[in-house]
Amino acid sequence: MKKKKILLTILTVILLVAIIWCINIPYQEVNVTDSLKSIQKSGTCLAVHELYKDEDWDTMIVIKPYDSRTASDEKIDMGYAGDRDAILDNTLYDSICTLLFLKGNKLVAFSSIYRNVIDFSKLGKTTYKSTESIRIVNKTAIDCQ
């Protein structure tokens, strides 16, 4: 009887630690759709840092549909494996571009953007420093010249 009680206590502690670990996952998908809609109205060049201001980051990577090579880049420290899986899943859909916000090579946040909201697939490159600029015209993100 005493062994069962000890075993039950140990299993309870392990379960609680697992639940707390899952709740405290530092990387999460963020919603930037509202800021995109307000930015789109301006039609001028803007620093990509304007897309996501909640945390400090220095590089944005644009993952276009079917670009699983960029999404699975092992140089990017995504921490929680579930984020890499979600980002890879997004590459299977023609209707989604994913923006990764990095500090160094560490994932800070990511956002899945439906192409009917803003189409990031027309951008000329995949990696942008936070100080670089893009323009959003007619629901399409393009490079500023």
Describe this entry's structure for a reader.
The protein is α+β, with helices and mostly antiparallel strands and 145 residues long. It is built from four helices and seven strands. The protein has helices at residues 2-23, 33-40, 68-71, 81-90; strands at residues 46-47, 59-63, 96-103, 106-114, 127-129, 133-137, 140-143. The strands form two sheets. Strands 4-3-2-5 form a four-stranded antiparallel sheet. Strands 1-6-7 form a three-stranded antiparallel sheet, with no helix packed on it. The longest helix is centred in the first third of the chain and has 22 residues, at 2-23.
Read across the widest sheet, the strand sequence of neighbours is 4-3-2-5
Query: What separation lies between the terminal Cα atoms?
Result: 75 Å
What is the overall number of helices? 4
Largest sheet: 4 strands, antiparallel
- Alpha-beta classification: alpha+beta
Low-confidence stretches: none
What average pLDDT do the residues reach? 80
Strand fraction equals: 15-25%
Elements, N to C (H/E): HHEEHHEEEEE
Radius of gyration, in angstroms, nearest whole number? 19 Å
β-strand number: 7
The portion of residues assigned to helices is 25-40%
The global form is elongated
Spell out the key features of this protein.
three-stranded antiparallel β-sheet, 4 helices, elongated, 7 strands, 145 residues, alpha+beta, four-stranded antiparallel β-sheet, 30% helix
Topology of this structure?
Blueprint: H1 2-23, H2 33-40, E1 46-47, E2 59-63, H3 68-71, H4 81-90, E3 96-103, E4 106-114, E5 127-129, E6 133-137, E7 140-143
